[in-house]
Amino acid sequence: MKIIECPRDAMQGLTEFVPTATKTAYLNALLRVGFDTLDFGSFVSPKAIPQLRDTAEVLAGLDLSQTRTRLLAIVANLRGAETAVTHPEIEFIGFPLSVSETFQQRNTNKSILEALAELAQMQNLCEKSGKQLVTYLSMGFGNPYGDPWSPEVVGEFTQTLADMGVGIVALSDTVGASTPATIAPLFGQLIPAFPQIEFGAHLHTTPTSWREKVAAAYQAGCRRFDGALGGFGGCPMAADVLTGNMATENLLAYFQEKGEELGLNLEVLAEAQALAGGVFGAVVH
């Protein structure tokens, strides 16, 4: 079972800039918790995501000496990937490839065909640099724009990624559109069809629908889940009203019920929750 903690996704939509020192202290606490991976920052245009313009400075302040957690950085183009791979501390490079043409343009200012061409270059770059590319299939459970979507479409995208050699694919519920009726069949079909790929669930949700979504993915065989403490954040490019990230607390509660051994330091988790109040302007319970 892999839990990917995503403070980058939680912070990126905040309008008030969080000081670098505050970010760094929060991320260092999260590192000590022992998550599998920390989605800590992004190398994108400061004009697009001003909140994360200090990712390189934050990275320089992270203490990786006593953690098993690996670092993931998000990029929106090849230039960002070229910057990210120069940092030896970063193991994973994440790129959002959308199943929706409208959202691909809105999120990365390029067409799906252009994004696929650039993604192939990123995969090659990662292979040469000893990194792993994580591809997020944005709008993986449907979209509000009327663009074509079906399990077959998602399967075709996945086949293209498999042909490139991509090893990790996270189905992303960018606007909270997923339901158990869409989640279970997708994972149920894709996981056995592509055994060489590790599939993840990046689910956005409301406070009342999280359990059924997690259960659907878990029961269909998914063992990689993204979350963010407090359920903060979402994609600022997706909608005017943000649908929250999957709350890490809910993921942990569910998997503990299922008897999964997560190996996390819960005392440090409480410390991180306290620090989250300084980052997001509210106390996380």
UniProtKB/TrEMBL annotation:
Organism: Hymenobacter persicinus
Domain of life: Bacteria
A single BP term in Gene Ontology: L-leucine catabolic process
Pfam families: HMGL-like
GO MF entries: hydroxymethylglutaryl-CoA lyase activity; metal ion binding
Family: Belongs to the HMG-CoA lyase family.
InterPro entries attached to this UniProt entry: Aldolase_TIM, HMGL, PYR_CT
Name of the protein in question: Hydroxymethylglutaryl-CoA lyase
Keyword annotations from UniProtKB, A to Z: Lyase, Metal-binding
Alphabetical list of SUPFAM superfamilies matching this protein: Aldolase
Residue ranges of every copy of the Pyruvate carboxyltransferase domain listed in the record: 1-270
